[in-house]
Protein backbone atom coordinates (compact mmCIF):
# COMPACT_ATOMS: atom_id res chain seq x y z
CA UNK A 1 0.00 0.00 0.00
CA UNK A 2 2.78 2.43 0.93
CA UNK A 3 4.65 1.85 -2.33
CA UNK A 4 1.43 2.39 -4.29
CA UNK A 5 0.88 5.70 -2.47
CA UNK A 6 4.45 6.85 -3.20
CA UNK A 7 4.01 5.86 -6.85
CA UNK A 8 0.83 7.94 -7.15
CA UNK A 9 2.41 10.87 -5.27
CA UNK A 10 5.38 10.79 -7.61
CA UNK A 11 3.13 10.99 -10.66
CA UNK A 12 1.16 13.82 -9.02
CA UNK A 13 4.33 15.81 -8.41
CA UNK A 14 5.49 15.31 -12.02
CA UNK A 15 2.12 16.37 -13.41
CA UNK A 16 1.44 12.99 -15.07
CA UNK A 17 -1.34 11.73 -12.80
CA UNK A 18 -4.39 10.62 -14.77
CA UNK A 19 -7.96 11.40 -13.75
CA UNK A 20 -8.54 7.82 -12.59
CA UNK A 21 -5.31 7.85 -10.57
CA UNK A 22 -6.28 11.21 -9.05
CA UNK A 23 -9.52 9.73 -7.77
CA UNK A 24 -7.64 6.69 -6.46
CA UNK A 25 -5.23 8.94 -4.53
CA UNK A 26 -8.06 11.01 -3.09
CA UNK A 27 -9.85 7.85 -1.98
CA UNK A 28 -6.72 6.70 -0.15
CA UNK A 29 -6.81 9.83 2.02
CA UNK A 30 -10.02 8.59 3.56
CA UNK A 31 -8.88 5.02 4.27
CA UNK A 32 -5.10 5.25 4.44
CA UNK A 33 -4.48 8.84 5.55
CA UNK A 34 -1.50 8.00 7.77
CA UNK A 35 0.14 6.13 4.89
CA UNK A 36 -0.41 9.09 2.56
CA UNK A 37 1.04 11.58 5.08
CA UNK A 38 4.02 9.31 5.72
CA UNK A 39 4.64 8.98 1.99
CA UNK A 40 4.57 12.76 1.51
CA UNK A 41 6.94 13.24 4.45
CA UNK A 42 9.42 10.77 2.99
CA UNK A 43 9.29 12.38 -0.44
CA UNK A 44 9.89 15.80 1.14
CA UNK A 45 12.94 14.47 2.99
CA UNK A 46 14.32 12.84 -0.14
CA UNK A 47 13.88 15.88 -2.36
CA UNK A 48 15.87 19.11 -1.99
CA UNK A 49 14.11 21.19 -4.62
CA UNK A 50 10.64 21.09 -6.12
CA UNK A 51 10.13 19.62 -9.54
CA UNK A 52 10.24 22.06 -12.50
CA UNK A 53 6.63 21.00 -13.10
CA UNK A 54 5.62 22.57 -9.77
CA UNK A 55 6.59 26.21 -10.04
CA UNK A 56 5.30 29.22 -8.15
CA UNK A 57 2.56 28.30 -5.71
CA UNK A 58 2.32 24.71 -6.96
CA UNK A 59 4.78 23.33 -4.40
CA UNK A 60 4.54 20.61 -1.81
CA UNK A 61 2.53 22.86 0.51
CA UNK A 62 -0.25 23.06 -2.03
CA UNK A 63 0.03 19.36 -2.77
CA UNK A 64 -0.27 18.43 0.89
CA UNK A 65 -3.28 20.64 1.46
CA UNK A 66 -4.94 19.49 -1.75
CA UNK A 67 -4.54 15.79 -0.98
CA UNK A 68 -5.08 15.61 2.77
CA UNK A 69 -7.44 18.61 3.16
CA UNK A 70 -7.47 21.40 5.69
CA UNK A 71 -10.36 19.92 7.65
CA UNK A 72 -8.06 17.33 9.21
CA UNK A 73 -4.96 18.15 11.27
CA UNK A 74 -1.67 17.32 9.62
CA UNK A 75 1.59 16.97 11.49
CA UNK A 76 4.89 16.50 9.71
CA UNK A 77 8.14 15.81 11.50
CA UNK A 78 10.74 18.39 10.56
CA UNK A 79 14.04 17.13 9.23
CA UNK A 80 17.28 18.82 10.36
CA UNK A 81 18.04 20.03 6.86
CA UNK A 82 14.74 21.84 6.30
CA UNK A 83 16.13 25.24 7.31
CA UNK A 84 18.60 25.06 4.45
CA UNK A 85 15.86 25.06 1.83
CA UNK A 86 13.53 28.01 2.01
CA UNK A 87 10.90 26.50 -0.25
CA UNK A 88 10.53 23.47 1.98
CA UNK A 89 10.58 25.46 5.21
CA UNK A 90 7.89 27.71 3.79
CA UNK A 91 5.78 24.67 2.96
CA UNK A 92 5.97 23.38 6.53
CA UNK A 93 5.24 26.85 7.91
CA UNK A 94 2.20 27.23 5.69
CA UNK A 95 0.85 23.86 6.79
CA UNK A 96 1.28 24.54 10.50
CA UNK A 97 -0.11 28.10 10.49
CA UNK A 98 -2.68 28.27 7.72
CA UNK A 99 -6.40 27.88 8.36
CA UNK A 100 -7.37 28.35 4.72
CA UNK A 101 -8.36 25.95 1.98
CA UNK A 102 -6.07 25.50 -1.02
CA UNK A 103 -7.53 24.62 -4.39
CA UNK A 104 -5.56 23.27 -7.33
CA UNK A 105 -5.95 24.53 -10.84
CA UNK A 106 -5.95 20.98 -12.12
CA UNK A 107 -9.26 20.07 -10.55
CA UNK A 108 -10.83 16.71 -11.28
CA UNK A 109 -14.54 17.51 -11.80
CA UNK A 110 -16.79 15.33 -9.69
CA UNK A 111 -20.15 14.07 -10.89
CA UNK A 112 -23.26 16.04 -10.00
CA UNK A 113 -24.72 12.96 -8.32
CA UNK A 114 -22.07 13.25 -5.60
CA UNK A 115 -23.53 16.62 -4.50
CA UNK A 116 -26.53 16.86 -2.13
CA UNK A 117 -29.64 15.14 -3.49
CA UNK A 118 -31.73 18.33 -3.57
CA UNK A 119 -29.80 19.58 -6.63
CA UNK A 120 -32.08 18.97 -9.60
CA UNK A 121 -30.34 21.08 -12.25
CA UNK A 122 -26.78 22.30 -12.58
CA UNK A 123 -25.85 25.79 -13.78
CA UNK A 124 -23.38 26.26 -16.61
CA UNK A 125 -20.47 28.67 -16.26
CA UNK A 126 -20.49 32.10 -17.86
CA UNK A 127 -19.16 32.90 -21.32
CA UNK A 128 -18.76 35.64 -23.92
CA UNK A 129 -21.88 37.76 -23.40
CA UNK A 130 -22.35 41.50 -23.73
CA UNK A 131 -24.60 44.27 -25.03
CA UNK A 132 -23.32 47.24 -27.03
CA UNK A 133 -25.40 50.38 -26.44
CA UNK A 134 -24.83 52.99 -29.16
CA UNK A 135 -24.99 56.75 -28.73
CA UNK A 136 -28.47 56.87 -30.27
CA UNK A 137 -29.78 54.45 -27.64
CA UNK A 138 -30.00 51.40 -29.88
CA UNK A 139 -28.74 48.12 -28.44
CA UNK A 140 -26.86 45.27 -30.10
CA UNK A 141 -26.64 41.89 -28.40
CA UNK A 142 -23.06 40.78 -28.98
CA UNK A 143 -23.96 37.34 -27.65
CA UNK A 144 -26.36 36.62 -30.52
CA UNK A 145 -24.89 38.83 -33.27
CA UNK A 146 -23.28 37.14 -36.23
CA UNK A 147 -19.63 37.80 -37.09
CA UNK A 148 -18.96 40.78 -39.33
CA UNK A 149 -20.14 44.39 -39.44
CA UNK A 150 -22.56 45.31 -36.66
CA UNK A 151 -23.07 49.04 -37.15
CA UNK A 152 -21.58 52.21 -38.60
CA UNK A 153 -21.38 55.56 -36.79
CA UNK A 154 -19.22 58.68 -37.09
CA UNK A 155 -17.50 57.09 -40.05
CA UNK A 156 -16.53 54.10 -37.88
CA UNK A 157 -17.40 50.50 -38.70
CA UNK A 158 -18.05 48.28 -35.69
CA UNK A 159 -17.24 44.62 -36.29
CA UNK A 160 -17.54 41.37 -34.39
CA UNK A 161 -14.73 38.89 -35.00
CA UNK A 162 -14.86 35.11 -35.06
CA UNK A 163 -12.94 35.17 -31.76
CA UNK A 164 -15.82 36.97 -30.07
CA UNK A 165 -14.29 40.45 -29.98
CA UNK A 166 -15.68 43.84 -30.94
CA UNK A 167 -13.37 46.00 -33.06
CA UNK A 168 -13.82 49.64 -34.11
CA UNK A 169 -12.48 50.29 -37.61
CA UNK A 170 -11.62 54.01 -37.69
CA UNK A 171 -9.89 54.10 -41.07
CA UNK A 172 -12.57 56.34 -42.62
CA UNK A 173 -13.37 58.53 -39.60
CA UNK A 174 -12.28 62.14 -39.06
CA UNK A 175 -14.36 62.66 -35.89
CA UNK A 176 -16.66 65.18 -37.54
CA UNK A 177 -19.77 63.22 -36.53
CA UNK A 178 -18.67 62.59 -32.95
CA UNK A 179 -20.23 65.66 -31.33
CA UNK A 180 -23.83 66.11 -30.22
CA UNK A 181 -25.69 69.36 -30.74
CA UNK A 182 -24.35 70.75 -27.45
CA UNK A 183 -20.75 70.14 -28.56
CA UNK A 184 -20.23 67.23 -26.18
CA UNK A 185 -18.85 63.87 -27.41
CA UNK A 186 -21.27 61.04 -28.18
CA UNK A 187 -20.74 57.95 -26.06
CA UNK A 188 -21.20 54.21 -26.50
CA UNK A 189 -21.37 51.65 -23.70
CA UNK A 190 -20.48 47.98 -23.67
CA UNK A 191 -21.96 46.05 -20.74
CA UNK A 192 -21.51 42.45 -19.65
CA UNK A 193 -24.21 40.71 -17.61
CA UNK A 194 -23.64 38.47 -14.61
CA UNK A 195 -22.23 35.32 -16.15
CA UNK A 196 -20.63 37.19 -19.05
CA UNK A 197 -17.29 38.61 -20.15
CA UNK A 198 -16.09 40.29 -23.35
CA UNK A 199 -13.16 41.89 -25.15
CA UNK A 200 -13.41 45.14 -27.10
CA UNK A 201 -10.92 47.12 -29.16
CA UNK A 202 -11.73 50.81 -28.65
CA UNK A 203 -11.61 53.34 -31.51
CA UNK A 204 -8.01 54.33 -30.59
CA UNK A 205 -6.81 50.71 -30.66
CA UNK A 206 -6.84 50.24 -26.88
CA UNK A 207 -7.80 46.68 -25.91
CA UNK A 208 -10.15 46.15 -22.98
CA UNK A 209 -11.27 42.88 -21.39
CA UNK A 210 -14.45 43.25 -19.33
CA UNK A 211 -15.20 40.90 -16.45
CA UNK A 212 -18.72 39.81 -15.50
CA UNK A 213 -21.31 42.42 -14.43
CA UNK A 214 -19.22 45.32 -15.78
CA UNK A 215 -19.78 48.29 -18.06
CA UNK A 216 -17.44 50.58 -19.99
CA UNK A 217 -18.61 53.92 -21.43
CA UNK A 218 -16.41 55.57 -24.08
CA UNK A 219 -16.60 58.15 -26.91
CA UNK A 220 -17.68 56.68 -30.23
CA UNK A 221 -14.58 58.36 -31.65
CA UNK A 222 -11.46 59.79 -29.98
CA UNK A 223 -10.63 62.07 -32.90
CA UNK A 224 -10.57 65.82 -32.13
CA UNK A 225 -10.63 65.10 -28.38
CA UNK A 226 -7.91 66.44 -26.09
CA UNK A 227 -7.97 63.27 -24.02
CA UNK A 228 -9.33 59.74 -24.19
CA UNK A 229 -11.69 59.48 -21.24
CA UNK A 230 -13.66 56.32 -20.40
CA UNK A 231 -15.84 55.37 -17.42
CA UNK A 232 -15.71 51.92 -15.83
CA UNK A 233 -18.13 50.21 -13.50
CA UNK A 234 -17.00 46.72 -12.50
CA UNK A 235 -13.71 45.15 -13.51
CA UNK A 236 -11.58 45.43 -16.63
CA UNK A 237 -8.07 44.85 -17.89
CA UNK A 238 -6.63 47.54 -20.19
CA UNK A 239 -3.87 47.48 -22.79
CA UNK A 240 -3.77 51.16 -23.69
CA UNK A 241 -2.58 52.31 -27.11
CA UNK A 242 0.24 54.83 -26.69
CA UNK A 243 -0.45 58.42 -27.65
CA UNK A 244 1.50 61.09 -25.73
CA UNK A 245 -0.57 63.85 -27.30
CA UNK A 246 -3.84 62.38 -26.08
CA UNK A 247 -3.71 61.10 -22.47
CA UNK A 248 -5.90 58.14 -21.55
CA UNK A 249 -8.04 58.44 -18.41
CA UNK A 250 -10.30 55.98 -16.61
CA UNK A 251 -12.94 57.08 -14.10
CA UNK A 252 -14.47 54.52 -11.77
CA UNK A 253 -17.96 55.98 -11.76
CA UNK A 254 -19.86 57.55 -8.89
CA UNK A 255 -18.25 58.09 -5.50
CA UNK A 256 -19.65 55.14 -3.58
CA UNK A 257 -18.10 54.55 -0.15
CA UNK A 258 -15.14 56.78 -1.01
CA UNK A 259 -13.95 54.55 -3.87
CA UNK A 260 -14.13 56.92 -6.86
CA UNK A 261 -10.93 57.78 -8.68
CA UNK A 262 -9.43 58.87 -11.98
CA UNK A 263 -6.52 56.97 -13.53
CA UNK A 264 -4.27 58.78 -15.97
CA UNK A 265 -1.95 56.86 -18.32
CA UNK A 266 0.05 57.35 -21.50
CA UNK A 267 0.53 53.72 -22.50
CA UNK A 268 0.29 50.83 -20.09
CA UNK A 269 -1.23 47.52 -19.04
CA UNK A 270 -3.32 47.54 -15.88
CA UNK A 271 -6.34 46.02 -14.16
CA UNK A 272 -9.09 47.91 -12.31
CA UNK A 273 -11.60 46.31 -9.94
CA UNK A 274 -14.31 48.81 -9.02
CA UNK A 275 -17.44 46.79 -8.31
CA UNK A 276 -20.01 48.64 -6.22
CA UNK A 277 -20.41 45.68 -3.85
CA UNK A 278 -16.69 45.43 -3.06
CA UNK A 279 -15.20 47.33 -0.14
CA UNK A 280 -12.47 49.01 -2.20
CA UNK A 281 -11.33 49.98 -5.68
CA UNK A 282 -8.16 48.12 -6.61
CA UNK A 283 -5.88 49.26 -9.43
CA UNK A 284 -3.01 46.97 -10.40
CA UNK A 285 -0.20 48.02 -12.74
CA UNK A 286 1.46 45.38 -14.90
CA UNK A 287 3.44 47.49 -17.34
CA UNK A 288 4.15 51.18 -18.03
CA UNK A 289 3.24 54.11 -15.80
CA UNK A 290 0.04 54.98 -14.05
CA UNK A 291 -1.19 57.86 -11.92
CA UNK A 292 -4.11 57.23 -9.57
CA UNK A 293 -6.01 60.33 -8.52
CA UNK A 294 -8.59 59.87 -5.77
CA UNK A 295 -10.14 63.26 -5.06
CA UNK A 296 -7.39 65.87 -4.88
CA UNK A 297 -4.56 63.39 -4.24
CA UNK A 298 -2.18 61.81 -6.74
CA UNK A 299 -0.26 58.54 -6.50
CA UNK A 300 2.21 57.18 -9.04
CA UNK A 301 2.22 53.39 -9.45
CA UNK A 302 5.16 51.32 -10.63
CA UNK A 303 4.79 47.95 -12.39
CA UNK A 304 3.94 45.28 -9.83
CA UNK A 305 2.17 47.67 -7.47
CA UNK A 306 -1.49 47.93 -6.52
CA UNK A 307 -3.45 50.85 -5.08
CA UNK A 308 -6.36 50.11 -2.75
CA UNK A 309 -8.89 52.92 -2.30
CA UNK A 310 -11.64 52.84 0.33
CA UNK A 311 -13.38 55.46 2.46
CA UNK A 312 -11.39 58.19 0.64
CA UNK A 313 -8.13 56.61 1.86
CA UNK A 314 -5.61 54.99 -0.43
CA UNK A 315 -2.64 52.74 0.12
CA UNK A 316 -0.11 51.30 -2.30
CA UNK A 317 1.04 47.70 -1.81
CA UNK A 318 2.96 45.04 -3.77
CA UNK A 319 0.52 43.35 -6.14
CA UNK A 320 -0.31 39.69 -6.48
CA UNK A 321 -0.54 40.01 -10.25
CA UNK A 322 -1.46 36.37 -10.74
CA UNK A 323 -4.50 36.76 -8.51
CA UNK A 324 -5.49 40.05 -10.16
CA UNK A 325 -5.41 38.59 -13.67
CA UNK A 326 -6.76 35.12 -12.87
CA UNK A 327 -10.26 36.08 -14.08
CA UNK A 328 -8.83 36.95 -17.50
CA UNK A 329 -6.84 33.70 -17.63
CA UNK A 330 -9.88 31.56 -16.84
CA UNK A 331 -9.80 31.16 -13.05
CA UNK A 332 -11.52 32.43 -9.94
CA UNK A 333 -8.52 32.92 -7.67
CA UNK A 334 -8.33 33.85 -4.00
CA UNK A 335 -5.63 34.75 -1.52
CA UNK A 336 -6.80 34.55 2.10
CA UNK A 337 -10.29 35.61 1.04
CA UNK A 338 -13.30 35.24 3.32
CA UNK A 339 -16.38 33.31 2.23
CA UNK A 340 -18.33 36.44 1.24
CA UNK A 341 -15.53 37.58 -1.09
CA UNK A 342 -15.45 34.11 -2.67
CA UNK A 343 -19.21 33.96 -3.09
CA UNK A 344 -19.38 37.41 -4.71
CA UNK A 345 -17.18 36.08 -7.50
CA UNK A 346 -19.26 32.89 -7.71
CA UNK A 347 -22.45 34.97 -7.93
CA UNK A 348 -21.14 37.17 -10.76
CA UNK A 349 -19.75 34.35 -12.86
CA UNK A 350 -22.66 31.92 -12.53
CA UNK A 351 -25.39 34.60 -12.40
CA UNK A 352 -26.80 33.44 -9.09
CA UNK A 353 -27.81 35.11 -5.85
CA UNK A 354 -26.29 34.08 -2.53
CA UNK A 355 -28.01 33.79 0.84
CA UNK A 356 -26.42 32.89 4.18
CA UNK A 357 -28.29 30.58 6.51
CA UNK A 358 -27.03 30.74 10.08
CA UNK A 359 -23.63 32.08 11.09
CA UNK A 360 -21.27 33.05 8.28
CA UNK A 361 -18.35 30.57 8.31
CA UNK A 362 -15.14 32.24 9.53
CA UNK A 363 -12.70 30.65 7.11
CA UNK A 364 -10.11 31.96 4.69
CA UNK A 365 -9.58 30.58 1.22
CA UNK A 366 -6.63 30.49 -1.15
CA UNK A 367 -6.06 29.01 -4.59
CA UNK A 368 -7.99 28.84 -7.86
CA UNK A 369 -11.15 27.37 -9.34
CA UNK A 370 -11.43 26.86 -13.08
CA UNK A 371 -14.08 29.09 -14.63
CA UNK A 372 -15.17 26.39 -17.07
CA UNK A 373 -16.54 24.22 -14.24
CA UNK A 374 -20.27 24.09 -13.63
CA UNK A 375 -21.67 25.65 -10.47
CA UNK A 376 -22.01 22.28 -8.73
CA UNK A 377 -18.42 21.34 -9.56
CA UNK A 378 -17.18 24.69 -8.23
CA UNK A 379 -19.19 24.40 -5.02
CA UNK A 380 -17.93 20.85 -4.47
CA UNK A 381 -14.42 22.27 -4.21
CA UNK A 382 -15.54 24.75 -1.56
CA UNK A 383 -17.55 21.98 0.09
CA UNK A 384 -14.29 20.22 1.02
CA UNK A 385 -13.70 22.92 3.65
CA UNK A 386 -16.78 21.70 5.54
CA UNK A 387 -18.90 24.59 4.25
CA UNK A 388 -22.22 23.29 2.98
CA UNK A 389 -24.41 24.59 0.19
CA UNK A 390 -27.95 24.19 -1.00
CA UNK A 391 -29.09 25.24 -4.47
CA UNK A 392 -32.65 26.39 -5.08
CA UNK A 393 -33.15 27.53 -8.65
CA UNK A 394 -30.59 30.28 -9.17
CA UNK A 395 -30.02 30.87 -5.47
CA UNK A 396 -27.12 29.40 -3.51
CA UNK A 397 -27.69 29.04 0.22
CA UNK A 398 -24.49 28.94 2.30
CA UNK A 399 -24.73 26.89 5.48
CA UNK A 400 -22.14 26.34 8.25
Automatic annotation (TrEMBL):
Keywords: Membrane, Transmembrane, Transmembrane helix. It comes from the Bacteria. Residues 168-194 are annotated as: Disordered. Residues 331-398 form the Protein FecR C-terminal domain. Residues 189-290 form the FecR protein domain. GO terms for molecular function: sigma factor antagonist activity. The keyword Transcription regulation does not apply. The chain crosses the membrane at residues 85-104. This is FecR protein. It comes from Pedobacter steynii.
Amino acid sequence: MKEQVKYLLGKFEKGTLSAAESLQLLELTGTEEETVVEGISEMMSEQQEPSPNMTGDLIWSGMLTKIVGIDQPLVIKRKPFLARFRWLAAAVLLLTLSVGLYFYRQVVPEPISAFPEQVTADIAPGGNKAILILADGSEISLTDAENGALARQAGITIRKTAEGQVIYDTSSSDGSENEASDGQPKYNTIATPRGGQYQINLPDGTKVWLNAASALTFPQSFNKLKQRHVILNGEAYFEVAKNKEQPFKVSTGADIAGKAQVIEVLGTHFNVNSYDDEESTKTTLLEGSLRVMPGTGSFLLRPGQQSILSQHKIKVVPADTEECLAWKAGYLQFNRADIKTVMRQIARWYDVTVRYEGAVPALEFGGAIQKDLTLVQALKILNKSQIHFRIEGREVIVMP
